[in-house]
Structure formats: structure tokens, C-alpha cells
Amino acid sequence: MADRPGLEWGESPWEDWDHDWRERQTPVEVTSRLVVCPPWIAAPLLEDLDLRGKSLLDMGTGTGILSVYAAGLGAAFVTGFDIDPVTGPCLHENLDLNPTPPGTIVAFFVGTSEALRPSARFDAVVTNMIRTEIWPYLDVLLSRLRPGGSLAVSGQRIEDQPYWREWFTAKGLKPFREFELDGWWGFVTHSPST
Asked: How far apart are CA 127 and CA 130, in angstroms?
């Protein structure tokens, strides 16, 4: 490949890429109450949310950070699922690093919402998936909420807000809390009370 234009040969000093990558990582403040921290950085204390004694479903749980957070805030039952089998080891590691309070039931599985009992309903449903991933499952998310339950969605690009606003109107919903961070947007809405 030496005859290719722009290609140069040489040596670079040895660099510990893993160490340098870790040094550049900083906590990310998602909201004033939730900060995602690498495990080697001490995390700030989290404020209480009204999840005490309640149930939560985390769709597309990934590393399980939202589930672990909910358990730490007093949720009595938390279940999360993801279609990616790679999440299994990550979930196990995160639970080891962030033990849940005694008495809290935390259950994770690899699969889809179809693995849940048909009658399963939750006080809160959370998801952090981009719009194109979550859009086909919006009715599923709403159907898994108890009347008056909270739906929290994050991981949305700000430019996707018009799609969500149309969906709110079509479903008779409106967000009661919204937040923006570095071009990303999220919201919390409630299912109808009846």
C-alpha cells in the first residue's frame, strides 16, 4: 500500500487507550435528579422521585441504568427487557456494581414485551430509544400502563418533536414535564385515569 497517495508510514508513541478513554469520561447530568456516571467516578446522591412502592417497566433496558435508578428511588418491582442478547452480561455487572435495596424485586430478560403476562400493568414505563426504534411500540407502551401511570421517554432528537406532538394530540395526551440536553429531548406524560 506504500504507493497510495496520502499514506505515510511511521511510529507513534505507545498509548494506553483504555486509560486515556477513562480519563476523558465525565458524569452526564440527564436531569437534575439523574446523573449517569462511569463506575470509577463517585456518583452524586440522587433525589427521591415518587416511585416508592410502585412498579416500573424499562423497555429497551440496555445496561439497566434506568431500572437500577428506579429501584434506588424505592420502586418495589422493576422489570426491564431488551432484544439484544449482549445486554445480559452488562445487566449482571451493573447490578453487582449497584445493588438494589432489600425487598426490591428486579427482573431482567432478553426478549420482547410479548414475554410479559398479557395482564401485566405498571405504574411507570420508561424507555430511552430513538424515535424510529420506539415508534412501532407506542401502543404497547401505553397498554402496559395502569390508569394514570407515567410514561417517560428519552433519547429523542429535538427535530423529532413535531412527530411526538402529533402523537400526543392523536392520543389525547400532553407532556407534563419535558427536558432538553445537547440536542436531545425527553418527556413524561400520564396515561388517562380511566
From this structure: 9
